Amino acid sequence: ILKERELEESDPYERIVSQARVFDFEAVESYEVIVKHVADALAKDVAYSASDLETMFLTGQHIGATAVSHGAALPELRLSGIVQTEIVLVRIHQGLKLELDDVAGKRIAANQPVHAVIFLLSPQEKTGQHLRILAELVSRVDEEGFLHEWHAAQDDNSLREVFLRHERFVQIRL
Questions:
Q1: How many CB atoms are located within 10 Å of the residue 116 CB?
Q2: Cβ partners under 8 Å of residue 161, min gap 6
Q3: Distance CA 37, CA 33 (A)
Q4: pLDDT per residue over 7-19, tens digit each?
């Protein structure tokens, strides 16, 4: 259980991360399999079908809209009709080699296996919030020791904590 300490309503990052869905795979055969799981989970809470979400995440991925850095990929969508921002954290223990299209449409492989995929789905009208959350996620992924902490996480809450400001949260095991 994550317990929030004096969380400010003006900064929803911690609340959104603490409520993130988590998928933890030992291995997975493709990015498309991950997207299917994520789309199925998100479709339960948003006004889009799993099929539509899957198509949009895959289309974004194929046009290079998925940032890949330091063993992590950050696919993102901003859609109208979404009530609140959603994050889905995906860990792939054995890693996954992603292939992306560059801006010229040429297929290229990511330079290292991806062990973390962080999906961000935000309301179209909340551009500033979307960019702030994306910047926090990217900043954390770029920190030294991110992948070590990511691999060392023991459970879903520990994976969420990797993205939280640790001084604002305490974990209580029941």
A1: 24
A2: 2, 153, 169, 171
A3: 7
A4: 445 579 999 999 9
Q: How far apart are CA 2 and CA 29, in angstroms?
A: 32
Question: Which amino acid belongs to residue 13?
Answer: Y
Query: What is the H or E stretch that residue 83 is in?
Result: none
pTM of the model: 0.84
> By three-state DSSP, how is residue 41 classified?
helix
Eight-class DSSP state of 97: -
Entry field: residues in the chain: 174
CB atoms within 10 A of CB 55: 14
Q: What is the pLDDT of residues 98-154, one digit of tens each?
A: 876 555 555 556 678 899 999 999 999 998 999 999 999 999 999 989 999 999 999
Structure tokens at 166: 């640790």
- Single-letter code of the amino acid located at 34: I
Contacts of 44 (CB under 8 A, 6+ apart): none
